[in-house]
Amino acid sequence: MTGKTHTPETVSKMSDSQQLVDRSGANNHMYGRSGENHPMYGKSHSDETRAKMSGANNPMFGRTGANHPKFGITPTNAFQSGANNPMYGRTGANHPMFGRTNGMTIYVYSLDGTLINSFSSQVATAEWLSVNHSTISRYIKSGKVWNNKYSFRKS
Length: 155
Hints:
By secondary structure, the protein is α+β, with helices and mostly antiparallel strands. It has a domain at 106-154. It contains four helices and three strands; from the N terminus they run H-H-E-E-H-H-E. It has helices spanning 8-19, 47-53, 122-129, 133-142; strands at residues 106-110, 115-119, 150-154. Strand 1 and strand 2 form a beta hairpin. Helix 3 (122-129) crosses helix 4. The chain is elongated and about 95 Å long.
């Protein structure tokens, strides 16, 4: 602005007021302006303009490695990487899940209550009956008899 300089207090107030403005979605001045509605649709930058935007004129030109703005910033999860991770080096018998299985034992009973078969998982039971495993899950939860043949119980 020419002719007037804002005081630091005024600049701060203007900055704070802009933080409260919602510019998402329909409130954004570019909302819905894509394709033919976009101001740059069908246009391209001239060679002179492209030259101004590239090379040494680009604020990121030559900024790699230690010169990159994010160089040296520790990622938020760095405290849990490598030897800092509580599970670091815990494999095989040292792993807390070693020897555990995720499946549950499913018992298949006949209508008269006789144990017909047992399986280590719902998937194995489903394969034995040639049905989807979600069918087994549903019948276990409901307690209903499947095909007037079997009832299922889990351990």
